Amino acid sequence: LTRPHTCAGYILAILSASLLPLQSPADFTPKIIIEAFKCMVPAIMMSNYANAINQLADVHIDKVNKPDLPLACGDFSMGEGLAITIASLLMAVAMGIMLRSPPLVIGFIIWCIVGGAYSIDLPPLLRWKGNPLMAAVSIICCNGLLVFFPFFIHFQKIVLGNPVAFTKPVLFTAAYLVIWNTACNIDIPDVEGDKAFGLRTLPIIIGKEKVFSIAVNIMLMAYGGVVLVGAFSPSVLCKLVTMISHSALAFVLWRQAKTNDPSDNKSAKSFYMLTWKLYYVEFFLLHFVR
């Protein structure tokens, strides 16, 4: 029930989180590689949990928006979906305990709570996806901060035994994850089903075109901010890589946005997948922000 593009993002986030705490090339040992692979398994399990519980709660909506999903098309029964959801969560938490990592266990528990609150229809406190503000908070947490910071702290404190230090690249990553996940998870392709079942997402409230324009401008401003940060880097290599690469990515984003039609679901989905590819690239480039 998981989605390959989200798993790929989580894997890259973990790889970046494992490298950022390293203070010298000597710190890069086989242990780091092994620990990174160990962490990928519970992260993918949490991805399974979040996607599965969302599909369980939204099976009626997905029959309109995403009829090819396993539960919506009948490949899995609701009982099988529930079993996968529970098993994925328990396996992730169990692996965090086996790794003797409080940051991972705490992160997975928060992930469980936020992911459930986003999807479960239990008014008045839950079903956050129906509230634009709470939906943004959920996405920022589950697709952003919780995919990175528990793993970063795990590697810095548990694996390397160093005190937790939030360096410039780490703070940049936090800002990037908040801004990017706010902008790119706007559910434009899902408007028809969401509207039919009474959800009040931002594209429904103010329109697809307006939301698309706001999202693109936020992402372009984010790239502009990174270019500005790069301009003040003391390292010539980091300065050049940061400024040139993010200028190029901004151009790609701008060019694709100019030809995209947010009113067309196929076009909107294509642009959404582009934002994920840009998201992947950033986990490599963030190491040059110095």
Automatic annotation (TrEMBL):
InterPro entries: UbiA_prenyltransferase (IPR000537), UbiA_sf (IPR044878)
Membrane topology classification: Multi-pass membrane protein
GO cellular component: chloroplast membrane
Pfam families: UbiA (PF01040)
Principal location: plastid
Entry GO MF terms: transferase activity, transferring alkyl or aryl (other than methyl) groups
Transmembrane segments: 81-99, 105-126, 133-153, 211-229, 236-254, 270-289
Record's subcellular location: Plastid, Chloroplast membrane
Keywords annotated in UniProt: Membrane, Transferase, Transmembrane, Transmembrane helix
Family: Belongs to the UbiA prenyltransferase family.
Record PANTHER family: HOMOGENTISATE GERANYLGERANYLTRANSFERASE, CHLOROPLASTIC (PTHR43009:SF7), HOMOGENTISATE SOLANESYLTRANSFERASE, CHLOROPLASTIC (PTHR43009)
Name of the protein this chain belongs to: UbiA prenyltransferase
Organism: Citrus clementina (Clementine)
